[in-house]
User: Fold Major facilitator superfamily (MFS) profile domain-containing protein from Oryza brachyantha.
Amino acid sequence: MDAFLRRFFPDVYRRMHGGGEGEGVSNYCRFVSRGGASTPAAANIAMLIVGRVLLGVGIGFGNQAVPLYLSEMAPPSRRGAFSNGFQLCVSVGAFVAQLVNFGTEKIAGGWGWRVSLAVAAVPAAFLAVGALFLPETPNSLIQQGEDHDKVRALLSKIRGNDGAGVEDELDDIVAADRSKVTARRGLAMMLTQRRYRPQLVLAVMIPFFQQMTGINAIAFYAPVLLRTVGMGESAALLAVVVKQVAGVAATLASMFAVDRFGRRTLFLAGGAQMVVSQVLIGAIMAAQLGDDGGLSRASALLLIVLVAVYVTGFAWSWGPLGWLVPSEIFPLEVRSAGQSIAVAVNFLLTTAVAQSFLAMLCHMKAGIFFFFAAWLVAMTTFVYLLLPETKGLPIEQVGKLWAHHWFWKRFVTDSGDDDECRAIGVDKL
Assistant:
């Protein structure tokens, strides 16, 4: 429940205090620093829970604010690479966390878990210093009523030019800014107004499907799973480190591919890669895993390779794109609320999958991998039919896609003339 509620808290807090995405990053630093300091020092369960709640609130601010900040600051032609950098840093952080866990496993006296948890305060401290130098996004400044000259100067600085491109982008941002009143009603508007139905469906279904790939089940319980198939404790942890390295490399590759090949291509290809690997993992375990829980050495090594293939498929598709696409599909007046919904659904499903995975593994055994493979087929079909391509579009013009999509056009009115829509590629949908 905490994992779900804390995702809505950032949008409510920021709307009450009038902050933008930069303020959300600063709040992330404050809460994670406090949680990272209090959790390892816990003397009892209550202190541990308080520390984890502080960490959760901080991560809620970060996951809500950072993808939006990157999407609004990045130039349209590089928005995918900038935003995928968020997932790259998450992957690098998870890799470092696995190394820390591997190193603290043998610390005597029960101090290993305290060291592992204390490390969380280190990156938060670095980010806290860096956040002091972050400007607000142009979109947030306009929404807060700042002078247009100030926004124009910021755009010139971050875009590196003073020409017509800056003026065009400023005009788009101003046109997208409905009013402060509607911005403060963003969540209610998202839930009740028909014209936001495409964004609402995608804000729910993309993070839902992202978790139904089974990635967090593998991430959380990979050591348990690998011990189940006959590996020792250290070997299982080392295999997880290898898996994480593969994930980092694939996420890095996605930064270069997403703005060249587009979001849909990566979604579809990554989904196919994960389906094949999940089916093969399930087939190997169904055919060779006996009641004693052991596999031959060759089968165990093949299983590790297939898990790495699955992880790389996720890391260059559904992993980064599950954050990128929700952050770029919302109009300005509901953008913060929409991202809060997406993040809340993501972590609600993370909790549900994490809590149910071991029980499902015990009851379904190898069948659990076919279960996730079936979801992968469903989500790949969903993307093929219902997700328009947003590659290269200015974030303020993404709204034009819905009125020209074969399905979503029934929910929205035409938001631009045909010539303008053809100019940004909508006619290709």
